[in-house]
Amino acid sequence: MTTLHHLGFPRVGAKRELKFAQERYWRKELSEQDLLDIAQKLREINWQNQAKENADYVTVADFTFYDHILDLQVATGAIPKRFGFDSQKLTLEQYFELARGNKDQFAIEMTKWFDTNYHYLVPEFHKNTEFKANPSHYVKQIKEAKALGFNTKPVIVGPLTFLWLGKEKGETFNRLQLLEKLLPIYTEILNAFIAEGVEWIQIDEPALALDLPKEWLEAYNYVYTELAKVNARLLLTTYFGSVAEHAPLLKSLPVDGLHLDLVRAPEQLSAFTDYEKVLSLGVIDGRNIWRANLNETLNLLEPLKATLGERLWIAPSCSLLHTPYDLSVETELQDKKPDLYNWLSFTLQKIKELHILKTALNQGRDAVAAELEQSQLAAQTRAESKDIHRIEVTARLAHLPENADKRKSPFAERIKEQNQWLNLPLLPTTTIGSFPQTPEIRYARASFKKGELSLEDYETAMKKEIEYVVRRQEELDLDVLVHGEAERNDMVEYFGELLDGFAFTKFGWVQSYGSRCVKPPVIYGDVARPTPMTVRWSQYAQSLTKKVMKGMLTGPVTILQWSFVRNDIPRSTVCKQIGVALSDEVLDLEKAGIKVIQIDEPAIREGLPLKRANWDSYLKWAGEAFRLSYMGVQDDTQIHTHMCYSEFNDILPAIAALDADVITIETSRSDMELLTAFSDFKYPNDIGPGVYDIHSPRVPTADEIEHLLRKALKVVPKERLWVNPDCGLKTRGWTETIEQLRTMIDVTKKLRKELA
Ligand code: GLN
Ligand code: ZN
């Protein structure tokens, strides 16, 4: 019999119940007991769903109130000492303080979980970090599931991935040295699981899909020889990439089974077919929302079943945490786009797909003939759909003129033409695009969406906002103005709603961090731009002022990165299609007299593949897609781009290759460190390093800004330097925004005098 299991389940609930409960608890509108009860109910529903679809084991210990790596810090006693909490007696309130900070301590830093949009809390390791086991959070879940009669398989992130994801703080040392102290703690935790009578324990080591240094790889043998001494069977799980290059090592470990992600890296299978223990194959995509073609999956699995027999397990590729919960609540989508609806699969549908696969493997395809036919039919209609495959889009991309992604002249020539008409002072000032999104703006947008506000009234409201933003910028004496983005709910959704090939769900939420969820658009078909998207807003804004108005678009890589992307053509093709669609907008803006255009790419770095060997090919197509988005513009049109959220040091050549005339970039929080890299690399075009942090209402002092600008002037020629905040201002209030910008402009004017 083939075994079916899961690696992890969404924690927030089908309708984000956990999020709402947490937030009410934080506002003191819900008691701790009520929050615990709601969480318990959600876990029970998760287990019931898994059991109902015939999972042989339900996954436990994957539930968390905030983040599973924070839970692991608590379970191993590795919470930051600076909070002064006792990990053995941690209260729920203290747990949330670790995650969200308190009046004395800033929160534990957060960063992206591999290449997903989930964020984990980064462990802080010190040379003298002492560990202490506290498995109670996990054991409670195991007990609960057992009491409900479920066959449970607890999951925990393995010690090497845990250490790898952490940061070294204080005195320099190598955190790998902590392993010796950490391992007995893991053994203690595993034994606590075993005391509950579990047969299998799932240990996640996704770090194996990264480029691990040799000494880290070598540690695997030591770690798993030690952990395998416990009296349970260990399933070592890998995901998000291929581990084929570690096949000899992984096959030699004394664990009882191995899980491979065959969705992300199907090619790695051949390196493991001679594995002699349990081989769990991740065949249903845990990262995306597309329905599988089950016959095809069976074509792969059936021969493996013949050779592996009982040792074949099937599962999603990774935890289902990264997919929305339930497609069946998307009734609007089902009405409006029944075909698309039929091509999708969320968590509850995915576990059903696995159920069908399991039945087919154990009883033959005939036992699920009808289900397999439906799956086949969906795959077929998708492959042939005219709604997806549009010849004019593919033809356009296939027949782009040569050098379509190159500007007509090099930067040195372009900038002269641009400066001629722009006539900007030294150190020109600008902002990144958005201005405060006040409750009134949000209310107007929401009412319009609900049909309570007429198009006319909505437009009037937005125009009023634009005028307000323009007047404030004029008063402040900014040089290059923006319209403020009041009409945009979200920088990706706004464009997705106006482009062909995109669809939206109502409840397609996935956890981003803690109680925060995102609802990515679905890119299901060839992308085109039927009509202008931003032109009339920018044009209206320009009509109000003599100063230059900057047009504002979201770039193709960021749109791609923050969406669920179709899996039937390469991501690179989708990205270039978006680039080409955006170029229509850029040219229309140019025609309308908007000749400074910013194309935001905050997400360009987060698209980087996990392994360095794959960086170049990604950066090549991402760069091309970005450049296609300004295809055909005149030399005297000035293209800006903007980046934030990450460090860019290691991809500077790729950033330069974007050939934007001006790049604005988040730098203030790193005290302009980033700029040193830009100057070492000799970044050739104009650059606007952020001079203040927009994440806080705090108004920077003139001295602080002056310090940053002087630092910038040391590494950037004064003719190349722009002055702007770190990022958009939409999360700020008006009062602080005005004061912050005024300080920025006062300092700039002072420096200008000095430099003149
Ligand atoms: N133009 C966007 C804004 O100002 C950029 C946002 C971002 O970089 N994340 O809001
Ligand atoms: Zn930004």
UniProtKB/TrEMBL annotation:
Binding site for Zn(2+): 642, 644, 666, 727
GO molecular function, one term: 5-methyltetrahydropteroyltriglutamate-homocysteine S-methyltransferase activity
Organism: Bisgaardia hudsonensis
Protein name: 5-methyltetrahydropteroyltriglutamate--homocysteine methyltransferase
Gene3D superfamilies: 3.20.20.210
Active site: 695 (proton donor)
Source organism phylogeny: Bacteria, Pseudomonadati, Pseudomonadota, Gammaproteobacteria, Pasteurellales
Cofactor requirement: Zn(2+)
UniProt pathway: Amino-acid biosynthesis; L-methionine biosynthesis via de novo pathway; L-methionine from L-homocysteine (MetE route): step 1/1
Similarity annotation: Belongs to the vitamin-B12 independent methionine synthase family.
Stretches assigned to the Cobalamin-independent methionine synthase MetE C-terminal/archaeal domain: 427-749
This protein's UniProt keywords: Amino-acid biosynthesis, Metal-binding, Methionine biosynthesis, Methyltransferase, Repeat, Transferase, Zinc
Residue intervals of the Cobalamin-independent methionine synthase MetE N-terminal domain: 5-307
Protein residues bound to L-homocysteine: 432-434, 485, 600
Record-listed 5-methyltetrahydropteroyltri-L-glutamate binding positions: 16-19, 112, 117, 516-517, 562, 606
Residues that bind Zn(2+) 1: 642, 644, 666, 727
